[in-house]
Amino acid sequence: MSSKPARPASRTKEPPPGDVEAARRASEESLRSFIDNAVFGIYRSAVDGRVLMMNRTLATMLGYGSPDELMGADLAATVYQDPAERERLVQQHRAGDRYAGVESVWKRKDGKPVPVRLSGRVLHDGSGAVAGFEGIVEDLSERHALEHRLRQAEKMEAVGQLAGGMAHDFNNLLTTILTTADLIGGELIGDSTIQSDLETIKIASSRGSDLIRKLLAFARRQRLDLQPVVLDALLQEVSTVLRRLLPQDIEIRVEVDAAGSAARADPVAVEQILINLATNARDAMPGGGTLTIGTGRENLTAAGCETQGWGLPGRYAVLSVTDTGIGMDPVTQSHLFEPFFTTKAVDAGTGLGLAMVYGLVKQHDGFVDVRSTPGSGTTVRVLLPEAESAAARSTPEGGTAQLRGTETILLAEDEDSLRRAAARVLQKHGYRVIEAANGAEALALYGEHEFEIGLIVADVVMPTLGGPQLLRALRQAGKNVRVLFTSGYTARDVQETKALDPGLPFLAKPWTISDFLRRVREVLDQPVPE
User: Fold this and answer.
1) 359 — phi, psi (to 5°)?
2) Residue 124 β-bridge partners
3) CATH topology for 408-524?
């Protein structure tokens, strides 16, 4: 019987020593790369605060070129905004094994504060004593900036809702005042004293209307008329207004961009921005000084936006307002654009001026940059998206078209005084008017006079049935009719909250007699909608 020789037992082949060393170095390099490029900062420190290890992410976060610059540095003195805070945190967490979600304020190499969140573990030596700490550092700067913008947006929305309600009531009152003053003025012949008094009433009412528009614009409840605007020309115009606004002991200097500066903006809103900033500068120079207003252009890069903490990359036209006044400390600057924040006496300011500027600029998709030092004045730069080209501002057309008519108009308005005034205006200009105190009454009257009515003028918000609901009921009944809506709320509010079709004719209050008659005539001259 034959037998085969037994096979030798298999043995694992050992890699050459060189390959083992290479594999070890590759593993260490991979680990080092992973740590250096981690999303969060990573560090190890001795119990006395000396830095023993730090990854590149953390060094970059703190503004250093490499981790080597911080090796052996004292964390308390070099990294913490308040050096005593580290010792408080050590005493608070040394008894445990781990710590998480600890918020603190560190500082960059240039001294700029960096809000951070710390998590990690406590290191112990062989005897169980605390030997140091290993931690992960999360930069909270962006999160805090987002939270600040959210709080600001919530404040603006709250004030916007308040402003919208106020605007509705005030605009109804102002429309009645303006219309009645015009009606009285039209009946007077040769009495210059009474005419002058009526003109004073109309001017005061117009100023009230302007104030409401500013409040709505600040709260971003009013749509802007964005168009290419030559800022240099606009600045020259506004400077003449500022000369009357500012005292004689304040010198005004105008410095425009030699190459020209054009923005996609609402010219009226830009005027408001400049006047508000100039007024604020005036109050910062109670003893006189120099106010410099200018224009320029700037190209914001992604790197620049990241460095300064605000902005979006792109080309911008710049408006700048610089004063030689008292300046502001960092605490005041941090509250600068908050609604109702003011450093003035209780009866000397509303705290809405700079908040209006903020709201208007944001509505333009722009940015505001403020630089100020106590005792050295303030510079406010407003960056507005640049326009490709801009034409000079046009003036409104003078005169009016034929505003009379003989048609029958159904007027639905719940404010008695305003309805009576509007009816008088229409009747005075040849129209026959059927009055309704609300939408339900208007619906019933339309059924009685369907073939006579050429136009329905309806307030958007009325008891029992508003204007949009009135139109909907008529359409469901198969009735085609011309409609002109009017409201003390802004067009944006009635479109967003009252479901009003943006394509429907709309006239915002307060309106003047010529505005009202012109809009009525325009709608009547259009074909009846299908």
Assistant:
1) -65, -40
2) 130
3) Rossmann fold (3.40.50)
| Tokens describing residue 367 | 């940015």
- Long-range CB pairs of 109-118, under 8 A, 24+ apart, other chains included: 109/62, 109/63, 109/64, 110/63, 112/63, 113/81, 114/61, 114/62, 114/139, 114/141, 115/139, 115/140, 115/141, 115/144, 116/41, 116/140, 118/89
Q: For 443, phi and psi rounded to 5 degrees?
A: -65, -40
Rounded to the nearest angstrom, the gap between the alpha carbon of residue 491 and the centroid of all alpha carbons in its chain is 19
With CA atoms as reference, report the closest residue to 62 among 108, 93, 25: 108
Q: Kindly state the average pLDDT of the residues 65-91.
A: 91
Distance between CA atoms of 185 and 197, rounded to whole angstroms?
10
- Do 467 and 439 form a contact (C-beta atoms < 8 A)? yes
Q: What is the mean pLDDT of the segment spanning 40-48?
A: 92
Give me the pLDDT at residue 339, please: 59
User: What pTM value is reported for the model?
Assistant: 0.46
How far apart, in whole angstroms, are the C-alpha atoms of residue 206 and residue 201?
Answer: 9
Distance in angstroms (rounded) separating the CA atoms of residues 242 and 279: 9
pLDDT tens sequence across 320-349? 999 999 888 888 777 777 655 555 543 444
Radius of gyration of the chain (CA): 35
| Number of C-beta neighbours around residue 327 at 10 A | 17
Between CA 149 and CA 145 the distance in angstroms is 6
What's the pLDDT at 393?
43
Q: Which two tokens stand for residue 526?
A: 């259009």
- Phi/psi of residue 373, each to 5°? -135, 135
From residue 434, how far is each of 18, 49, 62, 484 by CA, in Å?
A: 103, 85, 74, 15
The angle formed by the CA atoms of residues 41, 46 and 47, to the nearest 5 degrees, is 115
Nearest-angstrom CA–CA distance, 41 and 118? 10
H/E segment holding residue 254:
strand 250-255
Quick one: CA torsion of 185, 191, 193, 199, rounded to 10 degrees? 20
- CB burial of residue 529 (10 Å; 0-12, 13-18, 19+): exposed
Indicate the CATH number for domain 227-385: 3.30.565.10
Concatenate the DSSP letters of all residues of 31-59 into one string.
HHHHHHT-SSEEEEEETTSBEEEE-HHHH
Question: Where are the domains positioned within the chain?
Answer: 33-139, 227-385, 408-524
* Helices of type H across 386-462: 416-428, 439-449
Whether 472 and 499 have beta carbons less than 8 Å apart is answered as no
The dotted CATH code for 33-139 is: 3.30.450.20
